[in-house]
Amino acid sequence: MHQVSLRDIQQEDLPIFFEHQKDPVSSHMAAFTSKDPTDWGLFSNHWNRILTDNNIIKKSIIHENQIVGHVISFEMFGDREVTYWINREDWGKGIATVALKQFLNLDPTRPLYARAAKDNIGSRRVLEKCGFTIIDEDSGFANARDMEVEEFVFMLSD
Questions:
Q1: What is the largest CA-CA distance in the chain?
Q2: Is the backbone peptide bond immediately before 37 cis, with ω within 30 degrees of 0?
Q3: Eight-state DSSP code of residue 135
Q4: pLDDT tens across 32-88, in order?
Q5: How far apart are CA 21 and CA 99, in angstroms?
Q6: In sequence order, what are the beta bridge partners of 76?
Q7: Which of 60, 83, 62 is nearest to 13 (CA)?
Q8: How far apart are the first and last CA of the chain?
Q9: Contact between residue 87 and residue 20 where contact means Cβ atoms under 8 Å apart
């Protein structure tokens, strides 16, 4: 199968994540991104908060000895939520599915929630392959699209 592994995020991973975030196609698909994906200061401040928060589980996704993304779980509105990002060059290879399945063994919190823009078919498929089901719909302002975007809310219950 895929040579995919997870490891703790390190400070030196951040420039790679920043490059991933600057890709306009990836940001559009993710929808809910920072206001300015090219602002290193905002990016760095955001990630330093993540790295110093012990309640956030954060892992780099490694494929063939390269960092291709990250997966994180955190608390939002009293619920545990998972999110991930894969470099666009690595979309469609099954990496996100393998990485998320590995991550779900590291964070046993259930229920665990996730969100995806309704038109993000790839992310929806990853979540469904990992056992998440759609439980609700929501919408919010998406910086990457400069508009309200409808999303699905997913839950993993077991």
A1: 39
A2: no
A3: E
A4: 888 888 899 999 999 999 999 999 999 999 999 999 999 999 999 899 999 999 999
A5: 19
A6: 79
A7: 60
A8: 25
A9: yes
